[in-house]
Every structure is written in C-alpha cells, then in structure tokens.
Amino acid sequence: MSDGKLVGIVLVSHSAEVAASVADLAKALSGGGTAVLVAPAGGTEGGGFGTSAELVRAAAASVDRGAGVAVLTDLGSAVLTVKALLAEGDELPDNTRLVDAPFVEGAVAAVVTAATGADLAAVEAAAVEAYSYRKV
Amino acid sequence: MLDADFFRRWMTATAALVDREAERLTALDSPIGDADHGSNLQRGFTAVTAALEKEAPDTPGAVLILAGRQLISTVGGASGPLYGTLLRRTGKALADAAEVSPEQLAEALRTGVDAVRTLGGAAPGDKTMIDALVPAVDALGESFAAARDAADEGARATTPMQARKGRASYLGERSIGHQDPGATSSALVMTALAEAAGE
Questions:
Q1: What spatial distance separates the first Cα and last Cα of chain B, rounded to whole Å?
Q2: GO MF annotations for this entry (chain A) (predicted)?
C-alpha cells in the first residue's frame, strides 16, 4: 500500500481511439469504479495517428496523486517519446515509469492491480507479467 | 569560434532544407515507412524556427536545447524524440559557454549521437539515421564539409541494407533497395551545419 494513494496509469497509443478504448476496458475489468486513475494519451493533438508529448504530459499530470505513475505504450514513437520525456527529468511527475508490457493485457493487469492500492513496483510487476500469459 | 548566432543559422538552414526536401523525405518513407517523415520534420523545424525567434536563446547550448524540446513536442513521430534527443544532449554537453570551438561541437555532437543510439537501440548497419550521423561525427574533426560528405555517403550506403529498427524492420528483406528516410534527413542536418559554417 502507498498511504491510500493510488498509482496512476497512462496509456499511450498511436491512436486516440485505441488508447481511450483500452482505458475503458481496463477500468471496466478492474472493478475499481471511479477511483481508478487511468488516462489515455492517444494520437496527435490534431487528431491524427502518432504520439503527442503534450498529451502524454497532460495525462500523466492528471493521474498523479504522488504514488507514482506507470506508463504503458504501444510502439515506435510512443515508446521513444516517453523515454525522451523521462530522460528530460522534469517533464513527467516524480516516480513516473515506462512499463515494459503488452498494451492491452498489461493495461488491464496494471489497472486491476493499481485499483487494489498496490504500489508502483507491484503495478509494474503485474503489467510485465502479462507477457507470460500464453494463449495456446 | 561558434556563437549562438552560428547555431541559430544551423537550425534555420536545417528548417529551409527540410522544407525544400519534405516531399522527397516523405516519398522515401512511403515504401518502407508510414509516409510522414517529411511532413513531420517540416512541422518540427517550423516550430523550432518560431521558438528561436520568440525566445532568442543566447548561448549555443540554449539554442540546441530549445530546438530539441520543440522537436520532441511537435513532431508526432519517432523522428521527434530521436532528433530532439540529438539536439538537446548536444546542447547540454555544450553547457552555458557563450562560444564553442568546432572541436567542442564535435565532441558534444558525439554525446548527442550516443544518446540517440541509447534511446532507439540502433547500431551502425541497422539502416537508420545512425548510419549517417556516426560517419559525420567521425569526419567533423576534419571539417564541416567533410562531415556533410560523410553523412551523404552514409545515407546512400543505407540503400542495400536490411532495416533492423522501426517500422521498416517488419518488412525484412523487402526493406532492401530503399534509402533510409532518417539517414537522409540526418544528411540534411549535416548539410545545414556546413552551410552555417560557410563551407
């Protein structure tokens, strides 16, 4: 537990619809109700496909309650943008982490875990573990 | 010695070259990428030029850090964080010196290129901007013109390579035979540097 504060989750996709839908799906499966802190950062600010550093910054700020923020991404510029922002030092809230996880499964695992009040390390571990759920 | 004006000229010359070559960059990005490299960089460097005019940074390092930040914020594709990191790390390495020598720039640019390699995980031969930037930095000790020529040659040498990073890597062998758009735009950045130096 981290003082009753929940870890925030940011979902960064090239597509606004994908980010928003995965956020909705993860919230629906978490049973955490409205308390769950998950924010999508999808597409460019102009509504196109791509990654917006501005949307990532805003999403991270919106879910930061001081317990850390876990960021999940799809691929390419989403990964590189988050890494570049983290390298900058002061662009994202303290204790923000890029989590190496599959986007949909990882988001569900992260949000479900965060909803229980788990700390950032536990949320990250749950998301990373999603890679090992084999389907066949 | 190279002052803040020199670095502003480098950035505005890059913006002009990217404007002129945007269609070609996007055309190169069509068969092996997602056909947005030219327009993405155009948007980025237009923002760089506007920010430099508005904020008038007064040291070489401050010019590059501001430019890098604009690219990360405005490009929207992978080239934003990659070029943004290149310029910002180079700028940070120059610290707050009012003027720097070409040797100091060469050393700082190597720090920037290393940061790009770390960020994207690309090595020489992977058919990326690294294939133009590494030979350019190696040649920068000689002259700005030598760095420009080395970057050009490095970009052309990506044509027979198979892509191992980014979207083009999904194409496997089908990526062979196309010049890499990122290496091509990196050569433009080095051409602009030589222009700023009057070479």
A1: 15
A2: phosphoenolpyruvate-glycerone phosphotransferase activity
CB pairs under 8 A between A and B: 48
What phi-psi label fits residue A75: left (phi over 0), alpha (psi between -120 and 50 degrees) or beta? beta
Contact A84 B81 (CB under 8 A): yes
Q: Which of B69, B50, B54 is nearest to B12 (CA)?
A: B50
Domain count, chain A: 1
Domain range holding B103? 2-196
Residue pLDDT, tens place only, B114-142:
999 999 999 999 999 999 999 999 999 99
In this structure, are residues A84 and B119 in contact, taking their beta carbons and an 8 Å threshold? yes
The interaxial angle of helices B79-94 and B60-74, nearest 10 deg, is 160
Return the CATH number at A111.
3.40.50.510
Strand partners, A5: none
Partners of A50 on chain B (C-beta within 8 Å) are 36, 40, 76-77
Q: Is the pLDDT of residue A2 over 60?
A: no
> ipTM, 2 decimals?
0.86
Domain that holds residue A47: 8-132
